[in-house]
Amino acid sequence: MTLPIDPAANLATLIRCPSVTPAEGGALSALQAMLAPMGFGVERPIFSEAGTLDVENLYARLSGNGPHLMFAGHTDVVPVGDEADWTHPPFAAEIANGEMFGRGAVDMKGGIACFVAALARHIEQHGAPKGSVSLLITGDEEGPSINGSGKLLEWAAAKGENWDAAVVGEPTNPNALGDMIKIGRRGSISGTITVHGRQGHAAYPHLADNPVRALVTLCDALLDPAFDEGTTDFQATNLEITTVDVGNRATNVIPARATASFNIRFNDTWTAETLQAEVHNRLDRAAEDLRLRPHAQEPASFDLIWTERPSHVFLTRDEKLIAALSGSIEAVTGAKPALSTSGGTSDARFIKDYCPVVEFGLVGKTMHMVDERVALSDLEGLTKIYERFLADWFA
Ligand SMILES: [Zn+2]
Question: How far is Cα 21 from Cα 357, in angstroms, rounded to an integer?
């Protein structure tokens, strides 16, 4: 029996499945076909929720005596944009100059292809791992992430599954394989402020109440002072105003309403709840500031809506897990990886509620871009790193 020991062959198979979220595209079937010969039991639950499209997911488990390691990732990919812009077709897995081209090459079919190859090599050389291995693979990471990892974890935990540690195979390296492990992630909250004013003639501002004036003061209060200066493990919390909307085309009319939206990426100084309270405090205080509203007697009237479920901040402190991964990277690449909490959120935000989780995969430079591609040498390198990690972690 031939096991899937070649990461490039595994990746080519996966790239050729056009699994743009929420389409399965054959990718989970292809993965199942790789895992079954290694003895994995594979289940593919489909999750639904009103207002979203159904998404198929995969949970595979190889049971053994000992600790339980989870590898997590996604087979869905972002859209390709205009196919004509690609040097090589996005679902063809063509190789040129030592690189394989295709959507998902690094984000993150490549990571899955390498982990599967590492497992196959481990089994060929040492037999089944001295413990359990499971793959938690969603088809809903690049989409709304509602019918994906969160539900898959709940579903598996309800069946009695529990895990000792998890590795997410997202592309964590900014420039070269081995640059960076993610050991935590910042949290994220988003909100929209609407200021209610009174419409009127631009030449008679005292008869109106221009909501833009108050909105400027409210936005200023969110931007200054800084929320914090960062912590040992995290960069400073940052707020970005992402849009300001009035939609007024007339130059002689004071509008009735003005809105602004913002997103905050926050560190472990805060929880989503304490930060939301801080935002409310700042806005309430700023609403009473009448410097820009000389004709007003009353605090500005506004409301604030939190526009998405908060992503919570987390930091992993499992020394054994971090040391095994970091040591494997150093052994293969010759350099120590940085332990980072930078960047956006990932599905690790769901996993952290079940077990310690770290993230390490390929080089992210071309993710979500036209001509997404991966060096074949990186595929081999990451496979060697995962292989060594499996040997160390189960030792
Ligand atoms: Zn990804």
Answer: 24
**Structure confidence by residue, pLDDT tens digits, 106-128:** 999 999 999 999 999 999 999 99
Give the orientation angle of helix 27-35 with respect to helix 7-15, to 10 degrees: 150
- The helix (run of H) or strand (run of E) holding residue 315 is strand 314-315
Residue 1's alpha-carbon distances to 31, 135, 136, in angstroms, are: 17, 21, 25
Does the CA dihedral 208-212-215-221 come out positive or negative?
A: negative
Q: Give me the helices (H) in the chain, please.
A: 7-15, 27-35, 109-126, 149-158, 211-223, 272-287, 319-333, 348-351, 376-394
pTM to 2 decimal places: 0.87
Residue 141 designated active-site: yes
Active site residue 273: no
Residue 138: closest CA among 327, 334, 331, 347? 347
For every residue of 346-389, DSSP letters joined together read -THHHHTTTS-EEE--SB-TTTTSTT-EEEHHHHHHHHHHHHHH
Closest CA to 356 of 305, 322, 386: 322
Specify whether the CB–CB gap between 93 and 11 falls below 8 A: yes
Tell me the residue ranges of DSSP E strands in 169-283: 180-182, 184-185, 187-196, 200-201, 238-245, 253-254, 257-266
Query: Which of 92, 126, 122, 120 is CA-nearest to residue 7?
Result: 120
Catalytic residue, from 76, 107, 372, 387: name it.
Answer: 76
Residue 121: both structure tokens together: 């090599």
Distance of CA 5 to the CA centre of its chain: 28
Closest CA to 111 of 179, 152, 172: 172
| Residues in CB range of 364: below 8 A, 6 or more apart | 106, 107, 170, 171, 172, 173, 174
Ion ligand 1 — residues with CB < 5 Å: 107-108, 170
Structure tokens that stand for 98 in this block: 């030592």
In this predicted model, what pLDDT tens digit does every residue of 180-236 receive, in sequence order?
Answer: 999 999 999 999 999 999 999 999 999 999 999 999 999 999 999 999 999 999 999
Q: Which candidate in 99, 140, 141, 268 is catalytic? A: 141
